[in-house]
């Protein structure tokens, strides 16, 4: 049986180029534990992993690099263009990622960690992972800022940037499901101040929960 949790498990999500990684790094600096969905997604498709074998079986060896690692760009192009193929891929990777998240949560519980654990996941709500969280935090920004960041980060032209944003669940819908919202459309210090307040509030919630 899993050890009881002494921590708050908080989902951290947002949209493309909203600055979720910046917020995640700030939270880590304040002493939070971060479970990074992107990192886990890379781990579960490493050569020899069950999810890797299933992807090769379903999508063929064409999606591999010469060294046997997954060609994420090639696979991404296939699933981005075809919703059915994306569902096939998610049916392989999502359960494997969930199992890793559970193992990490169980390990922190067994260690007696008594702080805040953030599960940093771009599609937390779309994959229904938010239902397992104690709280949800959504990182927001306005669309022009997202487009400008995509241009600077990926070299995406504005039309491509807007297409990428439009392919995701609207931020306003995510915000409606959030317990807390971080507005990351201002400067770094304005975001840092919101993050500090959020962390203090969550620590206060944890303390009152522990006291009951």
Structural features, described:
The chain is an alpha/beta fold. It has 2 domains: 1-32 and 115-212, P-loop containing nucleotide triphosphate hydrolases (Rossmann fold, 3-Layer(aba) Sandwich); 38-113, 3-Layer(aba) Sandwich (Rossmann fold), CATH 3.40.50. It is built from 9 helices and 5 strands. Strands 2-3-1-4-5 form a 5-stranded parallel sheet, with helices on both faces. It is globular and about 55 Å long. The two termini are 23 Å apart.
What layout of secondary structure does this protein have?
Blueprint: E1 8-14, H1 20-29, E2 33-36, H2 37-44, H3 50-59, H4 72-81, H5 83-111, E3 116-120, E4 135-140, H6 143-154, H7 158-166, H8 171-176, E5 180-183, H9 188-211
Parallel strand pairs: 1-3, 1-4, 2-3, 4-5
Helix pairs in contact: 2-5, 3-5, 4-5, 6-7
Notable traits:
single chain, 212 residues, alpha/beta, Rossmann fold, 2 domains, five-stranded parallel sheet, 12% strand
- Overall structural class, as computed from helix and strand content, comes to alpha/beta
The global form is: globular
Integer tally of domains: 2
The CATH class of the largest domain is Alpha Beta
Task: Characterize the main sheet.
Answer: 5 strands, parallel
Q: Helix amount, in percent?
A: 55-70%
Number of strands: 5
In short:
The protein has 212 residues and is of the alpha/beta class.
């Amino acid at each position: 049986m899993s050890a009881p949790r002494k921590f708050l498990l908080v989902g951290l999500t947002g949209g493309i180029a909203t600055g979720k990684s910046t917020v995640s790094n700030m939270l880590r600096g304040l002493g939070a534990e971060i479970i990074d969905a992107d990192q886990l997604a890379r781990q579960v498709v490493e050569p020899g992993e069950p999810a890797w074998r299933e992807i090769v079986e379903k999508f063929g060896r064409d999606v591999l690099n010469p060294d046997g690692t997954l060609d994420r760009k090639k696979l991404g192009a296939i699933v981005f263009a075809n919703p059915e193929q994306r569902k096939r891929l998610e049916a392989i990777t999502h359960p494997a990622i969930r199992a890793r998240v559970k193992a990490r949560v169980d390990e922190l519980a067994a260690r007696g960690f008594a702080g805040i654990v953030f599960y940093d996941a771009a599609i937390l709500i779309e994959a229904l992972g938010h239902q397992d969280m104690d709280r949800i935090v959504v990182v927001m920004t306005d669309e022009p800022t997202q487009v400008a960041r995509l241009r600077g980060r990926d070299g995406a032209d504005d039309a491509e940037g807007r297409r990428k944003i439009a392919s995701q669940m609207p931020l306003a819908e995510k915000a409606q499901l959030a317990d807390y919202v971080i507005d990351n459309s201002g400067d770094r210090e304005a975001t840092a101040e919101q993050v500090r307040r959020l962390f203090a509030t969550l620590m206060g919630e944890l303390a009152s929960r522990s006291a009951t």
